[in-house]
Amino acid sequence: MGWSEEYMGYTNADNPFGDNNLLGTFKWQKALVKKGIEHLSEKELKERNKLIKEENRRELQKVKQLRLEREHENPCVSWSCCRERKRESILKHGQSKKTTFICTRPN
Hints:
Elements: H1 5-8, H2 29-35, H3 42-73, H4 79-104
């Protein structure tokens, strides 16, 4: 899970941080203790993280799908469309004020 040596430009042996496990995945022991999962093996932790990532990916796909469905139901749900409608409304309002101003101007 850690970054590769070629990406970072450092190795475990040669880095300015003095970290012998720089390219490895960081494991925050206090967080594991807080969650009550510090007893799990490395393999079990990796499997647990994999399941959590997969669940998050599925949830994100579901949210994206719901957003697309809402946009199909009401095409002006997207931000760009709302901005465009607001701009058109402002332009129409400005034009009607000019027209009103010109029409109500005394001779």
